[in-house]
Amino acid sequence: MNQMDMPPVLVTGATGRVGRLVIDQLLDAGVPVRALTRRSETAATLPGEVEVFTGDLTVPESLDPALDGTGAVFLVWTAPPQTAAAVVERLAAHVRRVVFLSSPHQTPHPFFQQPNPMAELHADIERLIAATGLESTIIRPGMFASNALAWWAPAIRTGEVVRWPYGAAESAPVDERDVAAVAARTLHQDGYGGGDYVLTGSESLTHAAQVDVIGVALGRRIDFEEMTPDEFRRLSDGAAPSSVVDMLLAAWEAAVGQPAYLTTAVADILGTAPRTFRQWAADHATAFTDGSQGS
Q: Which of 35, 63, 79, 288 stands 20 to 30 A from 14 (CA)?
């Protein structure tokens, strides 16, 4: 099919850290793009060629204008679970293909096997999608490289010691740009229907090693100090739900001494190796010095 004849792709979570990058990837490939936002004022941050629709996953009927004439949907679930069935039903009535941003909850590695309310929601949505007969692709990124910005940038910007629990816990941070590129490829190219892909970086790194890598990108040493789980809980109080904090701590504890789960999915789909955490840190170095989000 000629790109000009393609029906548009609808991106939900359009201003989020993955959705926004998916839009750029689709536009670069010449694919017409629609974006779903809950607030019309956020449209100002999107490229001018994107067709913006206001809608809310908690009000399923509000999606109909955006879905009418759409060929595929990138689904990022950012709402409570109550309306998931009605939303998926609407997707099935309007579009041919859905790519769902899920999580690696089926992965046989201790890091991903801790109780996780979000994983339960993802599993439920996957079952709903499968029951419709939609052509679907499930994308399961592991830990995002950009978590380092939320976790460690505040201390690094002020020259403090980075204090964090389970410094020896290993993960394979995946660059959001790689996740977005995989999502875009599976949205507009055939051959990925029924695909189920766990996306990881190419190397297993401990928390402490990741902080060292950031230090190399900045050209200075960053000291790392172990924090107790109880202290992490106290400092996280009010900043994150206790269920999320408990899940993270359990996952990190399970990952100590366990090399991270690695896949070749990014390279298999894109034909290029995933970006390393060193590349990610170099590209986002300014975010650790002046509060910006890097390039």
A: 288
Question: pLDDT for 76-92, tens place per residue?
Answer: 998 999 999 999 999 99
Give CA–CA dist 175/153, Å, rounded. Answer: 17
The token pair at 36 is 């779903």
Who's near 239: CB < 8 A, 6+ residues apart? none
Distance of alpha carbon 66 from alpha carbon 94, whole angstroms:
10
- Predicted TM-score (pTM) of this structure: 0.94
The CATH label, of 3.40.50.450, 3.40.366.10, 3.40.50.720, 3.90.180.10, for the domain at 3-144+174-201+262-274 is 3.40.50.720
Measure the CA–CA gap between 99 and 187, rounded to whole angstroms. Answer: 6
Surface-to-core class of residue 21, CB atoms within 10 Å of its CB (0-12 exposed, 13-18 middle, 19+ buried): buried
Query: Up-side HSE of residue 247: CA atoms within 13 Å toward CB?
Result: 15
State the pLDDT confidence band at 291, using cuts at 50, 70 and 90: low
Rg (CA), the chain: 19
